[in-house]
What we know:
Blueprint: E1 6-13, H1 33-41, E2 49-54, H2 57-65, E3 69-72, H3 80-89, E4 94-99, H4 109-120, E5 128-135, H5 138-141, E6 148-151, E7 157-161, E8 180-190, H6 191-199, H7 204-209, H8 213-218, E9 223-227, H9 238-260
Parallel strand pairs: 1-2, 1-4, 2-3, 5-9
Antiparallel strand pairs: 4-8, 5-8, 6-7
Amino acid sequence: MARKSEIIAVVPARYGSTRLPGKPLLNETGRPLIRHVVDAARKSKRVDRVIVATDDRRILDAVVGFGGEAMLTRADCASGTDRVAEVAAAIPEASIVVNVQGDEPEIEGESIDLLVDLLVEADPTIAMATLATPIFEPAVFHDASCVKVVTSKRGTALYFSRSPIPYDRDGSIAPGTPLGHLHLGLYAYRRDFLTRYAAMPPTPLEMIEKLEQLRALETGATILVGIVNRAAVGIDTPEDYKRFVERYRASEQADEQSSIL
């Protein structure tokens, strides 16, 4: 009997973060950060399994300890995508693979569902999908660490860049309308494409911009882009984590007060 086709979410998590070593295991909330990410991904109604992909036994043990699913991957994976592809290659029953960033504990299940639905409902030749959100702040639009994306009328990516795109040469963007769209690092892939994609060598534009998704565009793949109202907050620094802990504790207190009332 053929196995049921599955939609899986894979959370790449490595211990050796340059700016925040041991990030997945930070636990000032009483739970390791990686558990917050897994719990958030589990709120998706479209995903059958959530799997943490890690190269570190400490992270794997922590995930198994709270009842999660984890797989050890090679230590020499060049990127999170390579780690996700390694897990996908080991699960032939997976049809769609969602790459959930391991440092976004506040990712919304609805965002994952939108991403999956985009790919499920798309032409089978479309290989992957991602998300973006409108940019209204000039500082974000001109920040090279904030990746922008421009799309076609049918919602497919034309280009990703660290530069502000589109460039408003004549000042024709009306006040109060988005300056552009911020790309969010959440992806869904058809499994067969993902395993091929991860094996491709880096492409020229990818190396110039240092944006891995350009490899897909340069090699002829189509990327669907869904639009959401806001971005999940990533955790890159100790300050980011401190603010997350504050938000989490405030939310817990609000829930406690609500239950009393």
